[in-house]
Amino acid sequence: MDMCMGMAKLLLLLLLVVTAGHGHAAAAAGKERNTITHVKGFDGPLPFALETGYVEVDEAHGAELFYYFIQSERSPREDPLILWITGGPGCSALSGLLFEIGPLKFDVAGYTEGFPRLVYFEDSWTRVSNVIFLDAPVGTGFSYAREEEGLDVSLTGTGTHLRVFLQRWIADHPEFASNPLYIGGDSYSGYTVPVAALEIADQPDKGGLNLKGYLVGNAGTDDKYDSGGKIPFMHGMGLISDELYEAAKGSCGGDFVTTPRNAQCANALMAITMATFAVNPVHILEPMCGLALRPPTPVSSILSTGTRRRSARLLVQEAATPRPSTAPRSASPCSTGGPPPTAGSEPLIRLTTPLPSLGVLYTAYEYK
């Protein structure tokens, strides 16, 4: 969820301020497709095909999902079609597009002031696949509902919405109906993606969709098992000592998730927390975002001796050391690692597709 908050700050500056867009008739259903050829911050026309739009997934309550569709640069009619759901829940699809697998990145290293530049990312998945970046569940990004009942963010409700979205999107884009379809995502999407895939697989003839599988990265699955594996992992990576690990394992009975059963267990877990507070839980080799100071004395004392503990201490101190503003930026998307907000920032997004007037239901989910 921290990443979502960071995205909200970054998106106050930039994100797809359209300077030129052209629509053309869809191949079926006579709908206009909102094709984007230029975005503010990127020099020249986009070197890939970008389309944005809405698909209604719940007529009774006026729920619509907003998407960014980028065609494969290799062979759009043959390459896989991926529906990508960013985690959170509630992270904008733009975080997936700009920070994960999309073809645009912020030029952070070259940033000085003013409106930030966008640069082309050559290792994007869109080089070899068609990707739909979707604002889901309802209420995320520009997705909305006209009635409160339409804001169904349950796993089963979201799974149904994703199935309906794909069926209707394919109906409007029949040229992609035969492409191998995959549903993918990261983080919290480890919950929603399999549910959506099962929702489709359980339909007769898969609901008319050419579903071939699903993929998840850094996926949430079950809090008990996910969280329970963190301390053994930290021990295996040398971030905590053998003695500290064995103390926690013995006093906690191997249960690192539920309420500590005794004072010894609580003390051991607190010592582990202190020893690893400056380690980035998303990527242990990357610096912790937003950290300004070196670890306090308790961490230094815990990680003071032994080969493994010396390695961990150096890693923790490196993670906790602020980088000069002129230093090259890491690939890790720190929420504080982007261009700083400026006075009179541009609106979040300007779209050639008008946003409906929704009152409080929409503005509650709008980044402003």
From TrEMBL:
Residue span of region Disordered: 318-350
GO molecular function (one): serine-type carboxypeptidase activity
Keywords: Signal
Entries under Gene3D superfamilies matching the protein: alpha/beta hydrolase
Listed Pfam families: Peptidase_S10
Bias kind Low complexity: ranges: 319-336
Signal sequence, start to end: 1-25
Similarity field: Belongs to the peptidase S10 family.
Record's protein name: Uncharacterized protein
